[in-house]
Amino acid sequence: MKIIAVIGTRPNMMKLAPVLAAAKPYPELSFLVVHTGQHYDHRMSDVFLEDLELPPPDVFLEIGSGSHATQTARIMTALETVMLEEQPDMVLVFGDVNSTLAATLVAAKLCLPVAHVESGMRSFDRSMPEEINRIVTDHLSQLLFATSGVAVQNLIKEGIPRDRIHLVGDVMVDSLLTCLPRALDRPGYLDRFGLAPGGYGLVTVHRVDNVDIPGHLDEIVRLLAAVSRALPLVLPLHPRTAKRLEEFGLRGRFREVPSIHIIDPVGYLDMLKLMKESRLVLTDSGGLQIETSVLDIPCLTLRNTTERPETLSLGTNRLLHRNLETALKAVDQVLNGGWPAVKPVTLWDGKAAERIINVLLAL
Ligand code: UD1
User: Fold this and answer.
1) How far apart are the two ends of the chain, measured CA to CA in Å?
2) Is 66 in the pocket of ligand 1 (CB under 6 A)?
3) What atom in ligand 1 is closest to the CA of residue 208?
4) pLDDT band at 6, cuts 50/70/90?
5) Distance 120 CA to ligand 1 centre (A)
6) Ligand 1 atom at shortest distance from the alpha carbon of 11
7) Beta carbon of 70 within 6 Å of any ligand 1 atom
8) Cα 340 to Cα 330: distance, rounded to the nearest angstrom
9) Which residues are known catalytic residues?
10) What's the CA-to-centroid distance between 1 and ligand 1, angstroms?
């Protein structure tokens, strides 16, 4: 079976790596990896390939940035040529980014079966570009690899036939469990700022709703400044956020707050180490909500919805949107005890990719 696996962004690579590793013993599954180039900076792309020990992609499309329509259309045009030339038996897509949507649309129009890894997640907020990508991708896929029981239920409620859905767990957890020992061996960033393990909060923020609207980004900056009075913060800055801070004249505000340490985007291993050694994480990322839950690090999510509600019922994650008061209360609770300890989750066993490969082999 010839499979085209399409990746485009940082989180896609964490999802591809365990699938390729689990497929290694089976020569009957041959993969052609296409990187759309949605993420293209060395620190947004190459570092992840290196950290995950992934070979260079077989095809690199160099699409780059643009509006949603421009980026999606460019990826579609380029991918159509690749798919027509390669005539795969299946197209494998990951997560919920524009590259996922573009690949799915092209494959569906060429009548090629699509398999979706990380299927069924829903935030029920269609103002998020990722939610649109999730819904369209799931409805055009023949094989849906769901991460959790909630994800399976979401798909069934939307009328997707049960026999297309396979509950396999979360491949991001596979990557985390594989890479954590190597991550912890890294020198890390803390000495540079005079910080100790457990003595700082890790922050990531890049969602359109938080960073593309001046008033919202201003609220985020205020919130971080207030939290940093209780706990120093380390903030690896996503290029989208860096750009917006400059554009809205907000970058200078961080200079007045010495306990927020801004660094360039970090690779996967450095991120895992920063996360594991943090006291808490403030984030609007999806993946970090799961990763912190596995690592038992309190996660304060800078959103008002999540497509990963399991983390809320586990108690490891709390949605605070951009509410300053709620944030300060939650930080106080973490620092002064009272944050619930994580309960183990059955499917977070590092074997999600193995289950995916078993389904593909059974075809
Ligand atoms: C994308 C995904 C988001 C995911 C995130 C992970 C979509 C709709 N969004 O968001 O779901 O959580 O990736 O990081 O697909 N840029 C660079 N260098 C790069 C890549 C981007 O400078 O290598 C800058 C550009 O200014 C670009 C902006 O970041 O315009 C946004 O990049 P884009 O890929 O459109 O979306 P992300 O915000 O990264």
Assistant:
1) 9
2) no
3) 38
4) very high
5) 22
6) 6
7) no
8) 12
9) 206
10) 32
CA dist., res. 203 & res. 14, Å (int): 20
- Ligand 1 within 6 A of CB of 43: no
Using an 8 Å Cβ cutoff, are 41 and 64 in contact?
no
Q: What's phi and psi for 241, nearest 5 deg?
A: -70, -40
Query: Could you report the per-residue pLDDT of 301-356, keeping only the tens digit for each?
Result: 999 999 999 999 988 999 999 999 999 999 999 999 888 877 778 889 999 999 99
**Residues 6+ positions from 171 with CB-CB distance below 8 Å:** 14, 15, 18, 19, 94, 117, 118, 352, 353, 356
Instruction: Tell me if 2-169+348-362 shares its fold with 181-335.
Output: yes
Tell how far the Cα of 341 is from the centroid of ligand 1, in angstroms: 33
**98 CA distance to ligand 1 centroid (A)?**
9
Burial of 186 (0-12, 13-18, 19+ CB in 10 A): middle
Domain 2-169+348-362: what homologous superfamily?
Answer: Glycogen Phosphorylase B; (3.40.50.2000)
- Which atom of ligand 1 has the smallest separation from the CA of 44? 23
Q: What is the pTM of this model?
A: 0.96
CATH 3.40.50.2300 matches 181-335 = no
From the CA of 95, how far away is ligand 1's center (Å)? 14
Q: Which residue's alpha carbon is at the smallest distance from atom 1 of ligand 1?
A: 97
CB of 72 closer than 6 angstroms to any ligand 1 atom: no
Residue nearest to atom 27 of ligand 1 (CA): 65
Q: What are the structural domain ranges in the chain?
A: 2-169+348-362, 181-335
CB 35 within 8 A of CB 57: yes
Cα distance between residue 213 and residue 208, in whole Å: 8
Cα 189 from chain centre? 22
The residue type of 89 is D
* Nearest residue (CA) to ligand 1, atom 31: 240
User: How do residues 32-78 score in pLDDT, each as one tens digit?
Assistant: 999 999 999 999 999 999 999 999 999 999 999 999 999 999 999 99
247 and 254 Cβ atoms separated by less than 8 Å:
no
- Name which of 329, 220, 343 is nearest 283 in CA terms: 220
